[in-house]
């Protein structure tokens, strides 16, 4: 339970979500987008954040869809880690999702929540970065589709009021050889856990590392 009053918005389209955010901002109110909510609820409970409003985006259809065509696997931003893992569309990403927290939380944490949240590990970023995934963003100025490598540092760089709507994974990556290594004193904990995924495309090997630095870094061979 969140220990303070707040405005609750539940849009059914992306445009409604953006309009709600800007209306609240114009009234001097702070607002957060909410999908899985595990991090938001936890931070509110301990008093780390106290937004004036929460915009629940789970009813926006395109944010919860997964679909593949000849060139890409498209994953909606509000798909949960468990949905991605169980779909088995992209085994490397599914493996990374399955090593985050426990099953209960995997059913709540969303892909965008892991990528954009304040918790530093963002394990799903590594498979996406090493396969040259792209990201669709939607904001007041409309839609942007950008390579993930161009907007991801310690987290995805968003304009005010903007949100992630989907990630797009090239079809060549779905069955590419890979390795995913996680080192931890306690496998249930992600604290100081190096993660090292590897994909291959046309003979190029890419290794990415996460826990040694706030920003993922890679080596190509």
Written overview of the protein:
The protein is an alpha+beta fold and 221 residues long. It folds into 2 domains: 7-60, Uridine Diphospho-n-acetylenolpyruvylglucosamine Reductase, domain 2; 62-175, Uridine Diphospho-n-acetylenolpyruvylglucosamine Reductase, domain 3 (2-Layer Sandwich). It has 8 helices and 12 strands. The chain has helices at residues 14-26, 38-45, 81-87, 91-98, 103-106, 111-116, 125-130, 148-151, and strands at residues 7-9, 31-34, 53-56, 66-68, 72-76, 134-139, 142-147, 163-170, 178-179, 198-201, 204-209, 217-220. The strands form 3 sheets. A 5-stranded antiparallel sheet has the order 4-5-8-6-7. It has a 4-stranded antiparallel sheet with strand order 9-10-11-12. The chain has a 3-stranded parallel sheet with strand order 1-3-2, with helices on one face. The model is unreliable at 188-204 (pLDDT under 50).
- The appropriate CATH architecture of the largest domain is 2-Layer Sandwich
Question: For the terminal residues, how far apart are their CA atoms?
Answer: 49 Å
Q: Helix segment count?
A: 8
Strand share of the residues? Answer: 15-25%
Rg on CA atoms, Å: 17 Å
User: How would a textbook summarize the main sheet?
Assistant: 5 strands, antiparallel
Structural class based on helices, strands and sheet pairing: alpha+beta
- Compute the number of structural domains: 2
What's the count of strands? Answer: 12
CATH C-level name of the largest domain: Alpha Beta
Average the pLDDT over all residues and give the rounded result: 84
Low-confidence stretches: 188-204
Order of helices and strands: EHEHEEEHHHHHEEHEEEEE
Tell me, what's the shape?
Answer: globular
Helix content: 25-40%
Strand arrangement, largest sheet?
4-5-8-6-7
Question: How is the CATH topology of the largest domain named?
Answer: Uridine Diphospho-n-acetylenolpyruvylglucosamine Reductase, domain 3
């Amino acid at each position: 339970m969140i220990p303070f009053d707040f405005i609750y918005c539940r849009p059914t389209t992306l445009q409604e979500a953006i309009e709600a955010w800007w209306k609240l901002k114009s009234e001097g109110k702070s607002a957060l987008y909410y999908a899985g909510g595990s991090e938001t609820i936890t931070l509110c409970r301990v008093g780390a954040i106290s937004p004036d409003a929460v915009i629940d985006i789970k009813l926006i259809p395109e944010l919860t869809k997964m679909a593949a065509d000849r060139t890409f696997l498209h994953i909606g931003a509000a798909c949960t880690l468990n949905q991605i893992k169980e779909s088995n569309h992209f085994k490397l990403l599914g493996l990374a999702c399955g090593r985050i927290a426990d099953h209960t939380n995997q059913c709540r944490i969303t892909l965008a929540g892991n990528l954009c949240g304040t918790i530093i590990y963002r394990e799903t970023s590594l498979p996406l970065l090493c396969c040259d995934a792209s990201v669709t963003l939607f904001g007041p100025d409309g839609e942007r589709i950008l390579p993930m490598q161009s907007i991801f540092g310690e987290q995805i760089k968003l304009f005010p009021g903007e949100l992630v709507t989907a990630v797009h994974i090239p079809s060549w990556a779905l069955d590419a050889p890979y390795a995913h290594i996680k080192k931890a004193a306690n496998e249930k904990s992600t604290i100081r856990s190096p993660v090292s995924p590897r994909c291959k495309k046309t003979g190029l090997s890419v290794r990415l590392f996460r826990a040694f630095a706030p920003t993922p870094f890679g080596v190509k061979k």
